């Protein structure tokens, strides 16, 4: 954290000396309507490096848009995770179970 300037330290001391009810919050009004709030907008889950084997055409498709293919893959997997966890009695897709018997 950068070192505070003399003026910043003075401002902090002045604020500490005030009672809560004496602080002017008119430029930051109380927010009561949270209907347009975006849940998780600033939440960044911890990343974990993994090794995964994917089909070459899938990797080519992910990389075709340029930089950020790992972010795109993570977003796609998260979307699938959310989709399948919202369905009752669904542990996720099972490609081998869903194949038709030959």
Describe this structure in words.
The chain has about 100 residues and is mainly alpha-helical. The chain has a domain at about 40-95. Helices cover about 40% and strands about 0% of the residues. The chain has 4 helices and no strands. The chain has helices at about 5-15, 55-65, 70-85, 95-100. The termini are far apart. The model has no long low-confidence stretch (mean pLDDT about 85).
Give a nutshell description of this structure.
Helices cover 41% and strands 0% of the residues. The protein is mainly alpha-helical and 102 residues long.
Describe how the helices and strands are arranged.
Elements: H1 6-17, H2 56-63, H3 69-86, H4 95-98
């Amino acid at each position: 954290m950068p070192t505070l300037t003399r003026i910043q330290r003075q401002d902090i001391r002045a604020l500490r000396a005030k009672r809560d009810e004496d602080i002017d919050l008119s430029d930051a009004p109380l927010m009561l309507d949270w209907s347009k709030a975006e849940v998780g907008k600033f939440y960044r889950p911890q990343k974990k490096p993994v090794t995964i084997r994917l089909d070459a055409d899938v990797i080519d498709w992910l990389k075709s848009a340029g930089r950020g293919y790992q972010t795109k893959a993570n977003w796609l997997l998260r979307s699938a995770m959310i989709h399948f966890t919202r369905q009752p009695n669904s542990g996720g897709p099972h490609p081998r179970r869903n194949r038709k018997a030959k």
